[in-house]
């Protein structure tokens, strides 16, 4: 009887009584740690986004002051505009090329740098160098590379192509520059993923008679698919937001061959002084990127973990 009474007193029959009592400060302490980050997000992300949504429903004066509420007229004007549809087409075309070639180049350089050959450390440094160069600096360098008369590219190829002033080659030239700038990031992530692939898998494949390409197709790609999925999302978002190289190298031209949405937003806001229309374009661009990201996450089930 005495043992059962003692056991009854010590058993946790009431969880609330045995719970650790927290002081008021301990209850709010976790929120204090994230308060600085929340303040920054509110000032530089949430408030600007809300302001953009608000301005997209209004027309503005040349000074950016709100003149009147127009509802969805800005969106209607954009969706019925031939120039906006062209910029959307150019953006999609540009992004498809940038994403494909950036990830492919990162994968190839990562595989080569992962091989045990002399000079691998030097190759890794060279492949990573584009990350240390800003978009503006890279654009200025490639302006001289693509110059029709003194450019080194025409000299090496023995051609006389106006890379940045030709409707045929301007977009491809900007894509080449963007891919070169993206190689460093993709290379580092893919190389890190490759080093986590068990070497025993390659040894087993070699014993089965698998060649170089077969091993990477059947082993490497499935093993690093989570990294490729991450890079796909990052590259898609970055490609839709490209601006510096287009502004410096082609300014959306010649014609409208490189007139992407981000450059169109810049033109509408700071040259045409139509801030409401520019904000509407920004909102459309946001929802396009959001939709593409959600679609990619729906395809995540095909990723091997």
TrEMBL record:
Residues 88-296 form the ABC transmembrane type-1 domain. SUPFAM superfamilies: MetI-like. It comes from uncultured Anaerotruncus sp. It is found in: Cell membrane. One of its GO terms (biological process) is transmembrane transport. This is sn-glycerol-3-phosphate transport system permease protein UgpA. It is a multi-pass membrane protein. Belongs to the binding-protein-dependent transport system permease family. GO terms for cellular component: plasma membrane. It comes from the Bacteria. Keywords: Cell membrane, Membrane, Transmembrane, Transmembrane helix, Transport. CDD domains: TM_PBP2. The chain crosses the membrane at residues 31-50, 94-114, 126-150, 170-194, 215-237, 275-295. The keyword tRNA processing does not apply.
